[in-house]
Write a structure and sequence with these properties.
The complex is a heterodimer of chains A (about 160) and B (about 180).
Chain A: H1 2-8, E1 13-18, H2 24-31, E2 45-46, E3 55-59, H3 66-76, E4 82-86, H4 87-92, H5 106-113, E5 118-122, H6 129-146
Parallel strand pairs in A: 1-2, 1-3, 3-4, 4-5
Helix pairs in contact in A: 3-5
Chain B: H1 14-23, E1 27-33, E2 37-42, H2 47-56, E3 60-70, E4 73-82, E5 87-96, E6 101-103, H3 113-123, E7 126-128
Parallel strand pairs in B: 2-5, 6-7
Antiparallel strand pairs in B: 1-2, 3-4, 4-5
The chains are: A alpha/beta (about 160), B alpha/beta (about 180).
Amino acid sequence: MALRMWALRKSLWVYHVNVGACNNCDIEVLELLTPRYDIERFGMILVGSPRHADVLAVTGVCTRQAMPRLQELYLQTAKPCVVMAIGSCALAQGIFTEAYHMGLPVDEAIRAVDPNAIILYVPGCPPKPEAMIDAAVKGMAYLKTLGKPAAKASGKA
Amino acid sequence: MTTVPTQEGITLTGFVGEVIKRLGRLVVDVQQCQPRRGIVRIDPDATVEVARQLLAMSGSRLATATGIEVRDGIDILYHWCFEPEGVVLTVKALAARPELAIDSIAPVVPAANWIEREMHDLLGAQFRNHPDMRRLILDDSWPQGVHPLRKDFDQVLDRPPLPSAPTDGGGPKEAGP
Protein backbone atom coordinates (compact mmCIF):
# COMPACT_ATOMS: atom_id res chain seq x y z
CA MET A 1 0.00 0.00 0.00
CA ALA A 2 2.74 2.41 0.95
CA LEU A 3 4.51 1.92 -2.38
CA ARG A 4 1.40 2.50 -4.38
CA MET A 5 0.44 5.58 -2.39
CA TRP A 6 3.98 6.88 -2.91
CA ALA A 7 3.55 6.35 -6.64
CA LEU A 8 0.18 8.11 -6.61
CA ARG A 9 1.46 11.26 -4.97
CA LYS A 10 3.08 12.69 -8.08
CA SER A 11 1.98 13.08 -11.69
CA LEU A 12 -1.69 12.23 -11.35
CA TRP A 13 -3.16 11.08 -14.64
CA VAL A 14 -6.70 12.24 -15.25
CA TYR A 15 -9.53 10.59 -17.12
CA HIS A 16 -12.36 12.98 -17.94
CA VAL A 17 -15.90 11.59 -17.59
CA ASN A 18 -18.97 13.50 -18.74
CA VAL A 19 -22.13 12.04 -17.18
CA GLY A 20 -24.62 14.56 -18.50
CA ALA A 21 -22.91 17.96 -18.32
CA CYS A 22 -23.93 20.93 -20.44
CA ASN A 23 -20.33 21.11 -21.75
CA ASN A 24 -19.46 24.26 -19.82
CA CYS A 25 -17.49 22.37 -17.17
CA ASP A 26 -15.83 20.37 -19.95
CA ILE A 27 -14.66 23.57 -21.59
CA GLU A 28 -13.19 24.69 -18.27
CA VAL A 29 -11.46 21.33 -17.84
CA LEU A 30 -9.87 21.74 -21.26
CA GLU A 31 -8.89 25.26 -20.26
CA LEU A 32 -6.70 23.68 -17.61
CA LEU A 33 -4.51 22.18 -20.33
CA THR A 34 -3.88 25.46 -22.10
CA PRO A 35 -0.64 27.39 -21.49
CA ARG A 36 -2.45 29.99 -19.39
CA TYR A 37 -3.30 27.52 -16.60
CA ASP A 38 -1.00 24.66 -17.62
CA ILE A 39 -2.04 21.88 -15.25
CA GLU A 40 0.81 19.79 -16.61
CA ARG A 41 3.24 21.69 -14.42
CA PHE A 42 1.76 19.63 -11.58
CA GLY A 43 2.40 16.47 -13.58
CA MET A 44 -1.27 16.03 -14.45
CA ILE A 45 -2.25 14.96 -17.94
CA LEU A 46 -5.46 13.81 -19.58
CA VAL A 47 -5.36 10.16 -20.62
CA GLY A 48 -7.65 8.18 -22.88
CA SER A 49 -8.46 5.20 -20.70
CA PRO A 50 -9.64 4.81 -17.12
CA ARG A 51 -7.13 1.98 -16.70
CA HIS A 52 -4.31 4.49 -17.11
CA ALA A 53 -5.88 7.03 -14.79
CA ASP A 54 -5.33 7.99 -11.17
CA VAL A 55 -8.07 10.61 -11.14
CA LEU A 56 -11.60 10.54 -12.55
CA ALA A 57 -12.64 14.11 -13.37
CA VAL A 58 -16.43 13.80 -13.40
CA THR A 59 -18.65 16.55 -14.79
CA GLY A 60 -22.42 16.48 -15.15
CA VAL A 61 -25.61 15.63 -13.34
CA CYS A 62 -25.25 11.83 -13.47
CA THR A 63 -28.33 10.81 -15.41
CA ARG A 64 -30.03 7.44 -15.06
CA GLN A 65 -28.40 6.24 -18.27
CA ALA A 66 -24.92 7.42 -17.28
CA MET A 67 -24.93 6.28 -13.66
CA PRO A 68 -24.16 2.55 -14.21
CA ARG A 69 -21.52 3.58 -16.76
CA LEU A 70 -19.88 5.89 -14.23
CA GLN A 71 -19.89 3.14 -11.62
CA GLU A 72 -18.39 0.73 -14.13
CA LEU A 73 -15.71 3.29 -15.02
CA TYR A 74 -14.88 3.68 -11.36
CA LEU A 75 -14.57 -0.08 -10.94
CA GLN A 76 -12.29 -0.25 -14.00
CA THR A 77 -9.96 2.45 -12.71
CA ALA A 78 -6.83 1.13 -11.07
CA LYS A 79 -7.02 1.60 -7.30
CA PRO A 80 -6.19 3.66 -5.38
CA CYS A 81 -7.81 6.45 -7.33
CA VAL A 82 -9.35 9.84 -6.67
CA VAL A 83 -12.69 11.14 -7.96
CA MET A 84 -13.00 14.86 -8.70
CA ALA A 85 -16.67 15.90 -8.85
CA ILE A 86 -16.54 19.11 -10.89
CA GLY A 87 -19.34 21.66 -10.92
CA SER A 88 -22.65 22.21 -9.17
CA CYS A 89 -24.33 19.47 -11.19
CA ALA A 90 -21.81 16.82 -10.20
CA LEU A 91 -22.03 17.90 -6.56
CA ALA A 92 -25.81 17.95 -6.09
CA GLN A 93 -27.40 17.76 -9.56
CA GLY A 94 -27.85 21.54 -9.59
CA ILE A 95 -31.11 22.86 -10.98
CA PHE A 96 -31.95 19.44 -12.44
CA THR A 97 -32.36 17.69 -9.11
CA GLU A 98 -36.15 17.32 -9.45
CA ALA A 99 -36.17 16.08 -13.03
CA TYR A 100 -37.39 12.61 -13.92
CA HIS A 101 -34.18 11.38 -15.53
CA MET A 102 -31.83 11.94 -12.59
CA GLY A 103 -29.73 9.17 -11.12
CA LEU A 104 -27.88 9.59 -7.86
CA PRO A 105 -25.47 12.51 -7.41
CA VAL A 106 -21.93 11.63 -8.46
CA ASP A 107 -20.59 11.09 -4.94
CA GLU A 108 -23.49 8.84 -3.93
CA ALA A 109 -23.19 6.88 -7.17
CA ILE A 110 -19.48 6.28 -6.50
CA ARG A 111 -20.01 5.44 -2.84
CA ALA A 112 -22.66 2.92 -3.85
CA VAL A 113 -19.89 0.77 -5.33
CA ASP A 114 -17.03 1.83 -3.04
CA PRO A 115 -17.92 3.34 0.35
CA ASN A 116 -14.29 4.36 0.94
CA ALA A 117 -13.81 6.28 -2.30
CA ILE A 118 -11.75 9.47 -2.13
CA ILE A 119 -13.92 12.24 -3.57
CA LEU A 120 -12.93 15.86 -4.13
CA TYR A 121 -15.70 18.42 -4.53
CA VAL A 122 -15.19 21.42 -6.83
CA PRO A 123 -18.23 23.73 -6.65
CA GLY A 124 -19.09 26.33 -9.24
CA CYS A 125 -21.14 26.66 -12.39
CA PRO A 126 -18.75 26.24 -14.03
CA PRO A 127 -15.86 26.19 -11.55
CA LYS A 128 -13.00 28.45 -12.51
CA PRO A 129 -9.82 26.70 -13.62
CA GLU A 130 -8.18 28.19 -10.53
CA ALA A 131 -10.69 26.31 -8.38
CA MET A 132 -9.88 23.03 -10.11
CA ILE A 133 -6.13 23.65 -9.69
CA ASP A 134 -6.80 24.38 -6.02
CA ALA A 135 -8.72 21.11 -5.70
CA ALA A 136 -5.96 19.19 -7.45
CA VAL A 137 -3.31 20.68 -5.17
CA LYS A 138 -5.42 19.97 -2.08
CA GLY A 139 -6.01 16.45 -3.32
CA MET A 140 -2.30 15.89 -3.75
CA ALA A 141 -1.63 17.33 -0.29
CA TYR A 142 -4.20 14.91 1.11
CA LEU A 143 -2.68 11.97 -0.72
CA LYS A 144 0.70 12.83 0.78
CA THR A 145 -0.77 12.29 4.24
CA LEU A 146 -2.06 8.85 3.29
CA GLY A 147 1.21 7.04 2.65
CA LYS A 148 2.69 8.01 6.00
CA PRO A 149 2.59 5.31 8.67
CA ALA A 150 0.86 7.47 11.28
CA ALA A 151 -1.97 8.63 9.04
CA LYS A 152 -4.93 6.38 8.33
CA ALA A 153 -7.06 6.57 5.19
CA SER A 154 -10.38 7.91 6.34
CA GLY A 155 -11.98 8.05 2.91
CA LYS A 156 -12.85 11.71 3.30
CA ALA A 157 -11.14 14.54 1.52
CA MET B 1 -60.70 30.09 -51.45
CA THR B 2 -62.55 31.63 -48.54
CA THR B 3 -63.46 28.21 -47.27
CA VAL B 4 -60.67 28.09 -44.68
CA PRO B 5 -62.34 28.43 -41.28
CA THR B 6 -60.73 31.14 -39.20
CA GLN B 7 -61.26 32.38 -35.70
CA GLU B 8 -62.96 35.73 -35.29
CA GLY B 9 -60.84 38.73 -36.16
CA ILE B 10 -58.23 36.82 -38.14
CA THR B 11 -57.81 37.59 -41.81
CA LEU B 12 -55.64 35.52 -44.11
CA THR B 13 -53.15 38.08 -45.37
CA GLY B 14 -49.56 38.12 -46.51
CA PHE B 15 -47.34 35.13 -47.17
CA VAL B 16 -48.68 33.16 -44.19
CA GLY B 17 -52.21 33.67 -45.45
CA GLU B 18 -51.18 32.42 -48.89
CA VAL B 19 -49.69 29.26 -47.44
CA ILE B 20 -52.78 28.61 -45.34
CA LYS B 21 -55.05 29.18 -48.32
CA ARG B 22 -53.08 26.66 -50.37
CA LEU B 23 -53.72 24.02 -47.68
CA GLY B 24 -57.44 24.70 -48.21
CA ARG B 25 -59.89 22.34 -46.55
CA LEU B 26 -57.19 20.40 -44.73
CA VAL B 27 -57.13 23.29 -42.26
CA VAL B 28 -59.93 23.11 -39.71
CA ASP B 29 -59.05 26.22 -37.70
CA VAL B 30 -56.73 29.21 -38.12
CA GLN B 31 -55.62 30.45 -34.72
CA GLN B 32 -53.02 33.03 -35.72
CA CYS B 33 -52.02 34.74 -38.96
CA GLN B 34 -49.35 37.34 -38.33
CA PRO B 35 -46.84 38.63 -40.93
CA ARG B 36 -44.15 36.19 -39.72
CA ARG B 37 -46.08 33.61 -37.68
CA GLY B 38 -49.03 31.37 -38.36
CA ILE B 39 -50.77 28.76 -36.22
CA VAL B 40 -53.34 26.43 -37.75
CA ARG B 41 -55.11 23.30 -36.61
CA ILE B 42 -55.48 20.61 -39.23
CA ASP B 43 -57.58 17.54 -39.72
CA PRO B 44 -55.83 14.79 -37.66
CA ASP B 45 -56.28 12.33 -40.53
CA ALA B 46 -54.48 14.63 -42.98
CA THR B 47 -51.06 15.04 -41.34
CA VAL B 48 -49.27 13.22 -44.16
CA GLU B 49 -51.03 15.18 -46.90
CA VAL B 50 -50.31 18.51 -45.15
CA ALA B 51 -46.67 17.54 -44.66
CA ARG B 52 -46.36 16.56 -48.32
CA GLN B 53 -47.82 19.87 -49.48
CA LEU B 54 -45.74 21.99 -47.10
CA LEU B 55 -42.54 20.15 -48.02
CA ALA B 56 -43.25 20.78 -51.70
CA MET B 57 -43.44 24.53 -51.17
CA SER B 58 -40.31 26.48 -51.95
CA GLY B 59 -37.96 27.33 -49.07
CA SER B 60 -39.77 25.23 -46.49
CA ARG B 61 -38.29 22.89 -43.92
CA LEU B 62 -39.50 21.14 -40.78
CA ALA B 63 -37.73 22.97 -37.95
CA THR B 64 -38.96 20.74 -35.16
CA ALA B 65 -42.08 19.30 -33.63
CA THR B 66 -43.43 19.55 -30.12
CA GLY B 67 -46.16 17.84 -28.20
CA ILE B 68 -48.30 18.73 -25.21
CA GLU B 69 -50.96 16.82 -23.34
CA VAL B 70 -54.32 18.58 -23.48
CA ARG B 71 -57.78 17.65 -22.29
CA ASP B 72 -58.80 15.74 -25.40
CA GLY B 73 -55.51 13.97 -26.05
CA ILE B 74 -52.04 15.02 -27.14
CA ASP B 75 -51.51 18.01 -29.41
CA ILE B 76 -48.71 17.41 -31.91
CA LEU B 77 -47.27 20.67 -33.23
CA TYR B 78 -45.15 20.61 -36.37
CA HIS B 79 -43.19 23.83 -36.80
CA TRP B 80 -42.41 24.64 -40.41
CA CYS B 81 -39.91 27.35 -41.37
CA PHE B 82 -39.98 29.24 -44.64
CA GLU B 83 -36.43 30.54 -44.75
CA PRO B 84 -36.62 33.14 -47.58
CA GLU B 85 -39.60 34.88 -45.98
CA GLY B 86 -38.52 34.39 -42.35
CA VAL B 87 -41.86 32.80 -41.48
CA VAL B 88 -42.77 30.05 -39.02
CA LEU B 89 -46.01 28.17 -39.54
CA THR B 90 -47.14 25.86 -36.74
CA VAL B 91 -49.41 23.01 -37.74
CA LYS B 92 -51.34 21.42 -34.89
CA ALA B 93 -52.89 17.98 -35.03
CA LEU B 94 -54.72 16.38 -32.14
CA ALA B 95 -53.97 12.75 -31.31
CA ALA B 96 -57.29 12.12 -29.59
CA ARG B 97 -57.93 9.87 -26.60
CA PRO B 98 -58.03 6.99 -26.04
CA GLU B 99 -55.73 5.82 -28.87
CA LEU B 100 -53.56 8.97 -28.85
CA ALA B 101 -52.61 8.12 -32.42
CA ILE B 102 -52.04 10.09 -35.62
CA ASP B 103 -50.35 9.23 -38.90
CA SER B 104 -46.57 9.62 -38.84
CA ILE B 105 -45.12 12.09 -41.32
CA ALA B 106 -41.67 10.49 -41.09
CA PRO B 107 -42.13 8.44 -44.31
CA VAL B 108 -42.64 11.75 -46.15
CA VAL B 109 -40.40 14.04 -44.05
CA PRO B 110 -37.36 12.10 -42.76
CA ALA B 111 -36.50 15.01 -40.45
CA ALA B 112 -39.53 14.09 -38.33
CA ASN B 113 -38.25 10.60 -37.58
CA TRP B 114 -36.39 11.21 -34.33
CA ILE B 115 -38.67 13.91 -32.95
CA GLU B 116 -41.66 11.59 -33.34
CA ARG B 117 -39.76 8.87 -31.51
CA GLU B 118 -39.04 11.39 -28.76
CA MET B 119 -42.72 12.32 -28.46
CA HIS B 120 -43.53 8.63 -28.36
CA ASP B 121 -41.09 8.18 -25.46
CA LEU B 122 -41.97 11.22 -23.41
CA LEU B 123 -45.69 11.66 -24.04
CA GLY B 124 -46.89 8.29 -25.27
CA ALA B 125 -48.23 9.57 -28.57
CA GLN B 126 -48.64 6.83 -31.14
CA PHE B 127 -47.48 7.46 -34.70
CA ARG B 128 -49.01 5.12 -37.25
CA ASN B 129 -46.70 3.89 -40.04
CA HIS B 130 -43.56 5.23 -38.40
CA PRO B 131 -40.59 3.43 -40.01
CA ASP B 132 -38.54 2.83 -36.85
CA MET B 133 -40.38 3.32 -33.57
CA ARG B 134 -37.65 2.29 -31.12
CA ARG B 135 -36.92 4.00 -27.81
CA LEU B 136 -34.88 7.13 -28.39
CA ILE B 137 -34.09 9.15 -25.29
CA LEU B 138 -35.36 7.43 -22.18
CA ASP B 139 -32.73 5.28 -20.51
CA ASP B 140 -32.56 1.51 -20.90
CA SER B 141 -33.89 0.78 -17.42
CA TRP B 142 -37.00 2.95 -17.86
CA PRO B 143 -40.21 0.85 -17.76
CA GLN B 144 -42.39 0.57 -20.84
CA GLY B 145 -45.59 2.57 -20.83
CA VAL B 146 -44.46 5.26 -18.37
CA HIS B 147 -44.34 8.69 -19.99
CA PRO B 148 -42.58 11.34 -17.91
CA LEU B 149 -44.05 14.45 -19.57
CA ARG B 150 -47.68 13.46 -19.00
CA LYS B 151 -49.64 15.74 -16.70
CA ASP B 152 -50.31 12.97 -14.19
CA PHE B 153 -46.62 12.01 -13.85
CA ASP B 154 -44.95 13.56 -10.81
CA GLN B 155 -41.32 14.30 -11.66
CA VAL B 156 -40.11 13.28 -8.20
CA LEU B 157 -42.68 10.92 -6.70
CA ASP B 158 -43.32 8.79 -9.78
CA ARG B 159 -39.69 8.11 -10.66
CA PRO B 160 -39.07 4.46 -11.46
CA PRO B 161 -36.40 2.62 -9.44
CA LEU B 162 -32.85 3.48 -10.40
CA PRO B 163 -30.75 1.04 -12.44
CA SER B 164 -28.68 -1.26 -10.30
CA ALA B 165 -24.95 -0.74 -9.88
CA PRO B 166 -22.60 -3.03 -11.80
CA THR B 167 -20.84 -5.69 -9.80
CA ASP B 168 -17.09 -5.63 -9.56
CA GLY B 169 -16.20 -8.23 -12.14
CA GLY B 170 -13.51 -8.10 -14.77
CA GLY B 171 -11.97 -4.84 -13.61
CA PRO B 172 -8.31 -4.61 -12.67
CA LYS B 173 -7.81 -6.07 -9.24
CA GLU B 174 -5.41 -4.59 -6.75
CA ALA B 175 -1.98 -6.04 -7.23
CA GLY B 176 -0.64 -8.31 -4.53
CA PRO B 177 1.53 -6.99 -1.70
